[in-house]
Design goal:
Blueprint (H helix, E strand, L loop, with lengths): L3 E4 L2 E4 L4 E7 L9 E6 L6 E6 L5 E3 L7 E6 L4 E6 L8 E7 L2 E2 L3 E6 L1
Parallel strand pairs: 2-11
Antiparallel strand pairs: 1-3, 3-8, 4-5, 4-9, 5-6, 7-8, 9-10, 9-11
């Protein structure tokens, strides 16, 4: 069983930045790709970004150029740097790796 704990969410104004962190409970985390998803009220969970175990990254078109996913395998942690935040980025953000999900962290962006 792998525990994933997200942190770093909060309330910001449009145009500001946040950095989310997801800490895994095991070093086995380094063997897997990791991803961020988000879910806004009344919508389905959607893919945001992914990083492979080797550091290759992909992004949803809606966040490309604004968000950056990275990982520190020594700390069993994956990050999501979110810049130029928009109101439509408001959602609960979830970390995902292998078979496991975190509990989510709320990001609220106001105009």
């Amino acid at each position: 069983q792998v525990q994933l704990v997200e942190s770093g969410g909060g309330s910001v104004q449009a145009g500001e930045s946040l950095r989310l962190s997801c800490a895994a409970s095991t070093s086995a985390f380094s063997n897997y790709a990791a991803a961020w998803y988000r879910q806004a009220p009344g919508t389905q969970r959607e893919y945001v970004a992914m990083i492979t175990r080797f550091g290759s990254t992909t992004y949803a078109d809606s966040v490309k150029g604004r968000f950056t996913i990275s990982r520190d395998n020594a700390k069993n942690t994956v990050y999501l740097q979110m810049n130029s935040l928009k109101v439509e980025d408001t959602a609960v953000y979830y970390c995902h790796t292998h078979l496991y999900w975190g509990q989510g962290t709320q990001v609220t962006v106001s105009s």
